Every structure is written in structure tokens, then in C-alpha cells.
Design the sequence.
């Protein structure tokens, strides 16, 4: 098969969960994306936050509960970038910043909010989940790596997963010297992804949620094979 396309945190997370599900939604695209009420709520919340910070557009009444969070973020000194699209390419064996749609883009990420102030940066990812119990900081680490590449004068990045409904905050910090260490931690998963594209084999990883949430009905762990 063709060379693997650029990946994002969400696409790699889906591959790690189940390569077969990943194949159906992102390779063969036999399983179309269907927006549910939860997805739409999260998307609308992100848009409302973006417009409030970028243009001071009043929040819709349903999202006024995040006003105090947004005012705190707005008060942070520095240049603010809402929905900042970040790209990384590998050139001459080194990670470099590139356009989000560059032909050789390797990794893509979007920071809900990035604030850059001299040699410091701050990144925020809004979460509409009801609990931070399963918070995954790898997303922030990847965004921090892209920030370091995009703004080479930055020497420290502070990250935040802001669970606005759960009222929980996960904070992290990243140093310039370790800016790309996250890729080493993800190396085995990235190699498995490359091998899957190379061989065309995306093996399923079954779990108890297969039938309830996966749209790949041709998978042995999802479809009706009771008559076999």
C-alpha cells in the first residue's frame, strides 16, 4: 500500500485502540464519520471559546459557564493563537516546522489556544468530557513539540488539559532540551502503523465495546457470525 499519510494524535490513538477500526474509518473509509450529540456539543463549545478569545464574541447562553476560564486565559500576557494549525516534517533526519498541508508533513496538530510570550509558551486543550480520569497528556506533548519547532525562540511550554464540565485541570511542562522525546515514546506504535500500511494488514484488537461503538461490521468481533 501507499506510504502512510500524516498522522495526528487522534488518528494514532484510534490505531492503537484497534487497527481494524482505524482502517475502516481512515484507510478504506468504508465507515463514514457520523456526528453524534456529544461530538457536536464539543465542537460548538470549542468554536464559542475560539470566538470569545479571538474576537470577544459573547458566549452563547449554554456556554456561559466557561466564562471565568476564558477570562483567566485572556488575561495571560502574550500573543494568542486560536485553533493554531501546526505541522512537523522530517527533513535530513530532523524535525522541522512546516505548513499544515505541506507535501512532506509528518505530524499534524491543532492547539485550541496557544499563547506565546518571549521564550515561554502556553497551550490549552479544552475538554468537554465529564471526567479527567483517563486524561492523556501525550496530546499536549505532541503539540508542545510542534510549538518548539514553530517558535524556535521558545524554551519552555506549559500545557493544560482543561476539563470545563468536570472542572478539572491537568497541567504539564515541557523543556526545549526534551522537545521531541514524545516521538521516541510513541516509536513502537508508529512503527506498527507503518508496517500495517506496508503490508495492508490491520489486525483487530477486540474489546467489550466493539459491537456498541465500532462501525466495521465486517470484522469478526463486530458482525453477526453466530451462524458460522
Sequence:
Amino acid at each position: 500500500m501507499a506510504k502512510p499519510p500524516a498522522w495526528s494524535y487522534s488518528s494514532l490513538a484510534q490505531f492503537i485502540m484497534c487497527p481494524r477500526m482505524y482502517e475502516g474509518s481512515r484507510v478504506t473509509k468504508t465507515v463514514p464519520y457520523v456526528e453524534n450529540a456529544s461530538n457536536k456539543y464539543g465542537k460548538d463549545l470549542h468554536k464559542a471559546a475560539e470566538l470569545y478569545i479571538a474576537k470577544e464574541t459573547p458566549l452563547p447562553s449554554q456556554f456561559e459557564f466557561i466564562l471565568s476560564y476564558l477570562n483567566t486565559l485572556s488575561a495571560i500576557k502574550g500573543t494568542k493563537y486560536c485553533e493554531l494549525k501546526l505541522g512537523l516534517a522530517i527533513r535530513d533526519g530532523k524535525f522541522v516546522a512546516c505548513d499544515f498541508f505541506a507535501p512532506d508533513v509528518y505530524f499534524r496538530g491543532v492547539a485550541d489556544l496557544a499563547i506565546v510570550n518571549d521564550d515561554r509558551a502556553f497551550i490549552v486543550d479544552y475538554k468537554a468530557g465529564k471526567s479527567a480520569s483517563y486524561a492523556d497528556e501525550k496530546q499536549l506533548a505532541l503539540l508542545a513539540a510542534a510549538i518548539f519547532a514553530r517558535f524556535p525562540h521558545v524554551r519552555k511550554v506549559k500545557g493544560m488539559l482543561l476539563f470545563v464540565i468536570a472542572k478539572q485541570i491537568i497541567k504539564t511542562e515541557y523543556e526545549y532540551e526534551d522537545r521531541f522525546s514524545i516521538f521516541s515514546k510513541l516509536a513502537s506504535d508508529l512503527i506498527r502503523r507503518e508496517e500495517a500500511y506496508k503490508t495492508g494488514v490491520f489486525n483487530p484488537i477486540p474489546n467489550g465495546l466493539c459491537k456498541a461503538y465500532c462501525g466495521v461490521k465486517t470484522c469478526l468481533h463486530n458482525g453477526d457470525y453466530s451462524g458460522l
In short: The longest helix spans residues 37-55. The chain has two domains: 1-34+186-228, 38-185.
